[in-house]
Fold these 3 entries.
Entry 1:
Amino acid sequence: QVRLVESGGGLVQAGDSLRLSCAASGRTFSNYALGWFRQAPGKEREFVATINWDLNSTNYADSVKGRFTVSRDNAKNTVWVYLQMNSLKVEDTAVYYCAAGTYSDHAGGYKYWGQGTQVTVPS
């Protein structure tokens, strides 16, 4: 059974840091790119960051460059992908989703999705 389970979301103040985690199991996810997307209320889902299967390539949305860092751990049975978020802003408020698929900044490139974790940065 394929499972992508996010954790680590919460309510934080502007300027704080938060680390999201996603556990991917049920496939050989070490062969997949793993990405993070987010969706704010009333807005479309948008790309945040992605890391390729070989850990050698990463890509970030302009809005998070220099503040967010994506990393992964290709363990044997469960692959983990992390999103370290620093200097959080009000506009980072969204539900954050991890996804597995091809190395892309488009949601259509990803086949498997988690249920999401809420990140709230109040104004």
Entry 2:
Amino acid sequence: QVQLVESGGGLVQAGGSLRLSCAASGRTFSIVAMGWFRQAPGKEREFVATISLSGGNTYYSDSVKGRFTISRDNAKNTVYLQMNSLKPQDPAVYYCAAARSLRDYGLAYGYEYWGQGTQVTVSS
């Protein structure tokens, strides 16, 4: 099993920045990618970004490309999501996820492990 713990959520003004962290523990050798999804009230969980843990390849949804940056620190088994230029449509619970394959990186079912989520709120 892999355990994921997110941190870094909170309240920020529109146009501001936040950095989320996700620390993995347990059988981390079994995962090849870690990513972020978000879910706003009444909406489906949507893909935000993911990173391959070996090559560092990154993938983003169109809605965050150019504003969010995902990165990793393999020594710490930690992935980060730097969120800049936050918009009123960005508030949601942000979930960290880990996958044993990159095949379906853009879909929630492509990830076997999930964190509890951290709330991001943007004030206008």
Entry 3:
Amino acid sequence: QVQLVESGGGSVQTGGSLRLACAASGWLSSSWCMGWFRQAPGKEREGVASIYADTTYYADSVKGRFTISRDYVQNTMYLQMNSLKPEDTAMYYCAADLYGGNCLAPGREVKYWGQGTQVTVSS
């Protein structure tokens, strides 16, 4: 069984930065995609960034500001978030799926989820 635990959330002002981490335990294949999703109050969950091998995918709203990376030795995924905006405020979730490609692909149901970490950006 795979367990995902997020950390690194917090409160920052507009323009600030945060680095989220997702520590995976259990057997997690390097051939699986991993990704970050977020959900703001009253809104649907949306994909933020995904990584598979050396390929990354980003939502248009975060391109150029967020960077996803993965440490296969430490079994940890990261999301570096720069130039944060109030609209980035949400609960951020780490996710992993059983095969590669883009975890954010429309219609894809990702199998494993973390509990989430809150990110709040104030103006």
